[in-house]
Design brief:
The complex is a heterodimer of chains A (186) and B (121). Chain A has 186 residues and is mainly alpha-helical. In chain A, 54% of the residues lie in helices and 4% in strands. Chain A is built from 9 helices and 2 strands, in the order ββααααααααα. In chain A, a hairpin with a 2-residue loop joins β1 and β2. The longest helix of chain A is centred in the first third of the chain and has 15 residues. The radius of gyration of chain A is 23 Å and the shape is extended. In chain A, 22% of the residues are buried. Chain B is built from 5 helices and 2 strands; from the N terminus they run ββααααα. Chain B is globular and about 40 Å long. The chains are: A mainly alpha (186), B mainly alpha (121). Chains A and B meet through α2 and α4 of A and α1 of B.
Chain lengths: 186, 121
């Protein structure tokens, strides 16, 4: 499969679809850069370096920091990297503003995959879960829900509230911390 | 680019090579350039319009913070080819302000803010 490429330090680098290991850095970075303010050079470097590690996991950040990289090379790479996140509008160089994008909760998504696909590990999905795979799996689960989900629905199972949620609910009901009862006549 | 093609800047009467910069320098140089270049261009246009001298042109934008930023920018660019150069040493060099300003366009090119012009046939 041929991947799009970017040119960095005068060298051509393949840019496969990114996985959570890169997207954890790249997506928030791209969103921050879309709201371009001065002083984002570091973010630009973080995004491009993280994206390069998809095809070249052995790259050393200290080495990267010493490469003769033209600023326009970093800027030219950005639309390709944004597209390869798989989560931003494809085939357009327009990066949506932060208000229009909800960043994925990678830990929750990976936990769901590990739960429903026994035998896989979080580390596996950290490098294997691209946007098309995520979309395909969610569509498959929509059509054919995992057995555990069906069983929970059939049994009317509802998850217990977390301890913190229970305390918050008590605080909401009794904001002064006092439980007062109106006197009753017998 | 071979060594003899590396551009140079003149500081304290000495020629200094400025190779293409790396992120280590650009994280200081690029934000500084983006702040300084519009001010230099505006000041130069105003000076040309008013037919003012170099000194009046300088006075338009070189206040203490701007000078410090200009010096930090040029010093950082120099460390690409001269990583051993100490900032204290640089601050004691007899550098003319016009030399610092003259270095900006070379540093901007070497930071990759300007695309190289493609030769036309």
């Amino acid at each position: 499969m041929s991947h799009p490429v970017i040119a960095i330090a005068g060298r051509v680098w393949p840019m496969p679809l990114l996985a959570p290991r890169q997207n954890r850095i790249v997506l928030p970075g791209v969103v921050a850069l879309a709201q371009a303010r001065a002083g984002h050079y570091n973010t630009l470097c973080d995004v491009v370096f993280a994206a390069l590690t998809r095809a070249h996991p052995g790259l050393d950040r200290r080495e990267f920091d010493d490469w003769p990289i033209a600023t326009y090379e970093l800027l030219d790479a950005l639309p390709v990297i944004a597209q390869q996140t798989g989560f931003l509008e494809r085939n357009k160089n327009v990066i949506p503003a932060k208000a229009e994008i909800r960043l994925p909760d990678w830990d929750a998504i990976i936990a769901q995959f590990v739960n429903f696909l026994p035998g896989t590990t979080p580390d596996y999905w950290e490098d294997a879960l691209t946007a098309p795979r995520l979309d395909a799996m969610l569509e498959e689960w929509r059509k054919h829900p995992p057995l555990a989900v069906l069983a929970a629905h059939w049994l009317g199972y509802k998850p217990k509230p977390r301890d913190a949620e229970a305390i918050e609910e008590l605080m909401r009901l009794f904001p002064t911390g006092k439980i007062a009862c109106a006197p009753t006549m017998h | 680019m071979s060594d003899d093609q590396v551009p140079t800047i003149t500081l304290a009467g000495r020629e200094w090579t400025v190779p293409r910069l790396a992120p280590r320098q650009n994280r200081i140089v690029v934000p500084a350039l983006l702040r300084l270049i519009p001010r230099i261009i505006t000041a130069r246009e105003d000076a040309l319009a008013a037919k003012e001298s170099d000194l009046a042109y300088l006075a338009r934008f070189v206040d203490a913070p701007t000078y410090d930023e200009l010096a930090a920018l040029v010093y950082t660019a120099l460390t690409r080819a001269h990583p051993e150069l100490e900032r204290q040493e640089f601050d004691d060099m007899p550098i003319e302000t016009l030399e610092l300003i003259g270095a900006v366009s070379v540093v901007a090119r070497q930071a990759g803010l300007l695309r190289p012009v493609k030769p036309t046939n």
